[in-house]
Amino acid sequence: MNSYIKSAVYSENIKKQSSHYHDCHQIIYIKEGAIELDINGNIETASAGDIIIISRFENHSIKILSSTYKRYVLRVAVNLPESDSVFSIFTNRPQKFNNIIPVLKNSNEFEYIFERIVDEFHSNNSLTERLQNLLLNELLIYVSRFLPYEISNYDFKGLNMILCLKSELENYYFKEFSLDDLAQKYNVSVSTLTHNFKKIVGTSIFDYLLSCRMAVAKNYLSKSKVPIGEIVEKCGFTDNSNFSRSFKKINNLTPLEFRRKYK
Predict the structure, then answer these.
(1) d(Cα 131, Cα 133) in Å, to the nearest integer?
(2) N or C: which terminal CB in the chain sees fewer CB atoms within 10 Å?
(3) Residue spans of beta strands (DSSP E) within the chain
(4) How far apart are CA 20 and CA 7, in angstroms?
C-alpha cells in the first residue's frame, strides 16, 4: 500500500521561501502566527487554530504577517480514492466551501494528529504507510465535522455520475469534449449535468477541464524539457496562442516564464 502523504513537516521557519511548485494537494495547520493567504486571487487572513485545504488546481501564495509562524504542512497525493467522501474536500468546492477552516476549540486534538502523522512519516516502522493513510483519514473526518455542509449529503446517483465525469476529465484531459456528447453518455440533460457538476465541484465542466490541462502543463514545464508546442498538443489546447493566453491569465506568467521560474 502506498501512502497518500507525500511529505509531512513541522516548521518554525519564517524566512521568505523561494518560488516553488508541487503537483499535489496541501493541508496546513497553523500552530502559532498569522498569514495572508491568496488563493486564485481571493485574499484572506489565517491564524493560529486554522486549517487550510489547498487543491492541486488552486494557485496560491502565502505572506507571513507575524514574528512567529509555526505550522504543520502535509502534501497529499492527487490519486486519491474519490469513492471515499472524505477525500472530496480536496477537489469539491460547493457554494459554502472556504479553504480556511477554524478548529481552534479542538486545537489539542488536531495538533496530536498532525504530530503523529509527521512522526510516522519520518519513521521506519513496519506498515507505516498504512498507518499514515489511517491517520490522514482520521484527520479529514475531524475536519469534515467543522465544515458548514455535509460532504456526503448529495444524492448518491447524482454524486456517482459527477465523480465519474471528474475522473474522465482528469484522465482524458487531452480529448475534445462537448456538453451534448457528455449528457448523452451519462443519460441526463445538459442542464442537469452542468447544474450537478457545479453544485458538487464548484466550477463549470469546461473550467474544470482547463484546470486539469493546466496542472499537466505545469508538470511538463517544471519537470521536463518537452517543447512548449508539444505540451500544447499533449494537453489538448487548440494552438500555442490559446494556451499562452489561458496560461498567463490563470498563472500571471507566460509558459516560458513559468518554466524559467520553477524548473
Answers:
(1) 5
(2) N
(3) 5-11, 25-32, 34-39, 42-47, 50-54, 60-64, 70-76, 100-102
(4) 15
β-strand pairing of 25-32 with 5-11? unpaired
Residue 250: alpha-carbon gap to chain centroid? 15
Exposed, middle or buried by CB within 10 Å (0-12, 13-18, 19+), for 200? buried
Q: Which three cell numbers stand for residue 155?
A: 444524492
Question: What phi-psi label fits residue 236: left (phi over 0), alpha (psi between -120 and 50 degrees) or beta?
Answer: left
Instruction: Extract the C-alpha cell encoding 72.
Output: 504543520
What is the Cα Rg of the chain in Å? 19
Q: Over the stretch 114-171, which tens digit does the pLDDT of each residue have?
A: 999 999 999 989 999 999 999 999 999 999 999 877 665 555 567 788 888 988 998 9
Cell output for 249: 491569465
Burial of 92 (0-12, 13-18, 19+ CB in 10 A): buried
Q: Rounded to two decimals, what is the model's pTM?
A: 0.85
C-beta separation of 8 from 122 below 8 A: yes
CB under 8 Å to 231, separation ≥6 — which residues? 217, 220, 221, 243, 255
Q: Which amino acid is at 202?
A: G
| Strands ordered across the beta sheet of 42-47 | 42-47, 34-39, 60-64
